[in-house]
Write a structure and sequence with these properties.
The complex is a heterodimer of chains A (312) and B (443). Chain A has 9 helices and 10 strands. Chain A has 312 residues and is α/β, with parallel strands linked by helices. Chain A has 2 domains: 183 residues, HUPs (Rossmann fold), CATH 3.40.50; 87 residues, no CATH class. Chain B folds into 3 domains: 205 residues, 3-Layer(aba) Sandwich (Rossmann fold), CATH 3.40.50.300; 83 residues, Elongation Factor Tu (Ef-tu), domain 3 (Beta Barrel); 103 residues, Elongation Factor Tu (Ef-tu), domain 3 (Beta Barrel), CATH 2.40.30. Chain B is built from 7 helices and 25 strands. In chain B, strands 7, 8, 9, 11, 12, 13, 15 and 16 form an 8-stranded antiparallel sheet that branches. Chain B has a 6-stranded mixed sheet with strand order 2-3-1-4-5-6, with helices on both faces. A 6-stranded antiparallel beta barrel of chain B has the order 17-23-20-19-24-25. In chain B, helix 5 packs across helix 6. Chain B starts with 12 loop residues before the first strand and ends in a 20-residue tail after the last strand. The chains are: A alpha/beta (312), B alpha+beta (443).
Chain lengths: 312, 443
């Protein structure tokens, strides 16, 4: 049997080949510009984590030399790392952006939300998030979610329509064809937009290195007081840890993801530079979320269930 | 996350590909094998699969559970929706559109194929080319996926016999060629045993070609663009009006096809106004030349009226503008598309009102027969339509440009995506559009 394959190691010969980072960057910029062109009131979810930092960097490039035509929204669980809040405020200031903050603590103080027995506040973000979207009438909400993070997210569209309750219905998603994103929605509905859908954790880090993007220090190895819970190192602090049975120790650690202190685990690491972090991730045999997220371990469909309720 | 420890961090390219296969052809096993053998499945993911397999009473880890992400999919043991997977080798990054094989999910296969540069079509070596295989080949041809791989699976169940493979490969290649598929690569594999997926087979020494992964790593992902018609749909007008940039006025967009250069004379459609490119900004960096799929900002010598939805093309190389669109569509919504229906048509960055004037035919993918005047198209139907638009559109033939020859039909009432459209001739080969009465296909 003869086959018609021709073995060309073609990409290196084509003057028009783009590197994978250039392809991903170009696609993300296209998505930002589509939203700017089609929506009235977009907002970028900004947590001070690496994915939202990369999103903001891409938005700055997409509209250069004009300012980013979106405001930012942070859902503050009240248990955030101080370094991240400091980074957030400095970034907002530096780029002359407008920041909205939806505070989980406010909801708890007002008695609208109740603290969970396990102390994790990540699932409590959904109500403040959806109410902020309604209150400000945001019609497009950028999130830094990536499909490689989790198997329910692998099914997420780049433009993901949410009803007036912000709910995701995985069985009623619009097919997404070519690069023709359909952002039409009824009043009260909005679209979640994921420009980093096709990026992996390593892509994000390589892009951060290539572009020289500054990150909060907690992404790099540092000594920190931590305690062990459910096999993860959590930062000791006033948010509800440690219990008496959980001894605190000083360890050299860094964070692979940045949620809040109640659900984000640290990993043992001596990677103090970008190059060292990239080498560490490349060699890691654990996924980002598997290594560091407590909330995804609640059940096999934890993410799907939270997304259905309006989580991003 | 998915990398091998040896991966260099130099620039690699990206290949988007899709898989298609019938329910029991072993598609999930192939995908699982590709991910697993390329060391793209990490320990915690494998543990989750092992745990879930055990709790279902299965002895071996069911690799399909790696790819079935939704509760309903795991409950029913089938893939409902397209999922996207990511893996990498030292040579290349891959985005895999993992599409369901059920006939009722034709729209999902169309979705996966729309952005794919390559499609892997699976057949069971015991069954050979069956109706579903023909459907998959027809969709790949219709969507003009540049590279098609025929993976003849379950070779272990036919004694790894060369003659079995050769016959199936010949059958398929003949059919695909008639559809105008430009390139077919046939590979004998056993996804279950791992033959020729990532590692070369120890039992099929008669086969001298690449493994599936090797082929994915080396197939050209970008093409020579010098002969392509350059196209830039304007997405957004950038006007900072800041002290540093008081007069900056740039037309931002992703180059849909071809190349643009500084100094080039251009025409803006549909207005027909002309100017010259005075500068190209590539996300903040001035460049002399830019090409697809770069996202750029064009600066023009003259202050002409250009806005979102316009198409910038080289002067003298413009597509005809028209308010009458003839196209093949795949109907993707649950409610039908009918003659006389008012819709919105989204082409590149332009959305216009439109009305469905005629549905001349519906195509049966099984045998490529045309059924005249069906009156309507329902979910998963493929048919030809004539649409009249409220404003002129600069539409290329889909054969010339997948990006500027494609469009969506949208329900204006609630925004539902109704149909995926491809302008111009359906199949690359004229012979393929003859009716079922033609001999040569045995059903």
């Amino acid at each position: 049997m003869t086959t018609t394959v021709t073995h060309v190691h073609g990409d290196t010969h084509s003057p028009f080949a783009l590197s994978h980072l250039d392809s991903l960057e170009s696609e993300a910029v296209h998505i930002f510009r589509e939203v700017a062109g089609e929506f009235e009131r977009p907002v970028v979810l900004f947590s001070g984590g690496k994915d939202s930092i990369v999103m903001l960097h891409l938005a700055l490039k997409a509209f250069w030399p004009a300012p980013v035509p979106f405001s930012l929204l942070h859902v503050d669980t009240g248990h955030n790392f101080p370094e991240v809040i400091e980074y957030r405020d400095r970034t907002v200031e530096k780029h002359g952006l407008r920041l909205h903050v939806a505070s989980v603590q406010d909801y708890i103080d007002r008695g609208v939300l109740r603290e969970r027995p396990d102390g994790t506040r990540n699932p409590l973000q959904t109500v403040p998030l959806t109410e902020a979207i309604q209150q400000h009438r945001f019609d497009a909400v950028f999130g830094g979610g990536r499909r490689d993070e989790e198997k329910a997210r692998a099914k997420e569209r780049v433009f993901s329509l949410r009803d007036e309750f912000s709910q995701w219905d995985p069985r009623r998603q619009r097919p997404e064809l070519w690069q023709l994103y359909n952002g039409r929605h009824a009043p009260g509905e909005h679209v979640r937009v994921f420009p980093l859908s096709n990026w992996t954790e390593l892509d994000v880090w390589q892009y951060i290195e290539r572009e020289g993007i500054e990150l909060p220090e907690i992404y790099f190895a540092h000594e920190r007081e931590v305690f062990s819970r459910s096999g993860m190192w959590l930062t000791a602090g006033e948010w509800g840890g440690p219990k008496e049975s959980e001894p605190v120790e000083k360890r050299m650690i860094r964070y692979r993801t940045v949620g809040d202190m109640s659900c984000t685990g640290a990993v043992d690491s001596d990677a103090t530079t970008l190059q060292a972090v990239i080498a560490e991730i490349t060699a890691s045999r654990l996924t980002e979320r598997g290594a560091t997220r407590a909330d995804d371990k609640l059940s096999e469909a934890a993410m799907e269930d939270r997304k259905r309720e309006g989580y991003f | 996350m998915s990398t091998t420890a040896a991966e260099p961090l130099s620039a690699t390219t990206l290949l988007r590909f899709a898989t298609a296969g019938s329910v029991d052809d072993g598609k999930s096993t192939l995908v699982g094998r590709l991910l697993h053998d390329s060391k793209s499945v990490l320990v915690d993911q494998l543990e989750a699969v092992e745990h879930a397999s055990r709790s279902r009473g299965q002895e071996a880890p069911d690799l399909a559970l790696l790819t079935d992400g939704l509760r309903a999919e795991r409950e029913q043991g089938i893939t409902i929706d397209v999922a996207y997977r990511y893996f990498a080798t030292p040579r290349r990054r891959f985005i895999l559109a993992d599409t369901p094989g059920h006939v009722q999910y034709t729209r999902n296969m169309v979705t996966g194929a729309s952005t794919a540069e390559l499609t892997v079509i699976l057949v069971d070596a015991r069954n050979g080319v069956v109706e579903q295989t023909r459907r998959h080949a027809a969709i790949a041809a219709l969507l003009r996926v540049p590279h098609v791989v025929l993976a003849v699976n379950k070779m272990d169940l036919v004694g790894y016999e060369e003659a079995v493979f050769a016959r199936i490969a010949e059958d398929f290649t003949a059919y695909a060629t008639e559809l105008g598929v430009p390139e077919v690569t046939a590979i004998p594999i056993s996804a279950l045993a791992g033959d020729n997926v990532v590692e070369p087979s120890a039992t099929m020494d008669w086969y001298g070609g690449p493994t599936v992964l090797e082929h994915l790593e080396t197939v050209p992902a970008s093409h020579d663009l010098t002969g392509c018609h350059a196209r830039l749909p304007v997405q957004y007008v950038i006007r900072p009006q800041t002290p540093e940039h008081p007069d900056y006025r740039g037309y931002a967009g992703q180059i849909a096809a071809g190349t643009f250069r500084v100094g080039q004379e251009i025409t803006v459609l549909p207005s027909g106004r002309t100017s010259r490119i005075s500068g190209i900004d590539l996300l903040g960096e001035p460049v002399d030349v830019a090409w697809t799929p770069q996202s750029v900002t064009l600066l023009l010598e003259d202050d002409i009226d250009v806005s979102r939805g316009d198409l910038v093309v080289p002067t003298g190389d413009a597509p005809a503008t028209s308010q009458d669109v003839e196209a093949t569509v795949c109907h993707v919504a649950d409610r039908p598309l009918t003659v006389g229906q008012r819709v919105l048509l989204k082409h590149t960055t332009r959305t216009v009102k439109a009305i469905v004037k005629e549905i001349p035919s519906r195509l049966t993918l099984d045998d490529l027969s045309q059924h005249p005047e069906p009156g309507r198209l329902v979910a998963n139907d493929i048919g030809t339509v004539r649409v009249r638009t409220a404003e002129p559109l600069a539409l290329d033939a889909y054969a010339d440009s997948r990006r500027t020859g494609s469009f969506l039909l949208i329900d204006p009432a609630d925004g539902t995506t109704l149909a995926a459209g491809m302008a111009g001739e359906s199949f690359a080969s004229e012979k393929a559009t003859v009716t079922a009465d033609d001999d040569g296909w045995d059903f």
